[in-house]
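Much of our argument rests on the idea that a fold can be written as discrete symbols. The record that follows shows the chain in one-letter code together with its fold in token form.
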Amino acid sequence: MSVSFIRRFAAPKKALAVAAVAAATTGMVLSSAPAQAATTSDSSARTVAKQMIPDAAQYDAFSKIVERESGWNVTATNSSSGAYGLVQALPAHKMSSAGSDWKTNASTQIKWGLDYMNSRYGSPTAAWSFWQANGWY
């Protein structure tokens, strides 16, 4: 085995070991909790949305918008505009009208997003049609 071959594989392992030691020294945990334990995970936000939007076509349209806007990340923030959350509300604090926990609660953000889509476009499917035509809603 050549020395360069060994170096190519030893260096990444060493870097990983150094990172693990540094993380342990500073008190960071490298393991994560199960996805179902997180209240703001992608899967739990989708589950909440399905419960709140029983019509399959409306849910599908809502889901397509959220997937493109935030990737189902409850704390997604657009660094240039400040848009925030699942539905990328702008300004973000507008979602407080749906609840004081708007920064972290998927249900609150979904409720606000549905209200927004229904009042501005008539429905999530109409909002999705607009999104497709314009790349935003």
Q: What stands out?
A: Residues 2-39 have pLDDT under 50 and may be disordered. The longest helix spans residues 3-25.
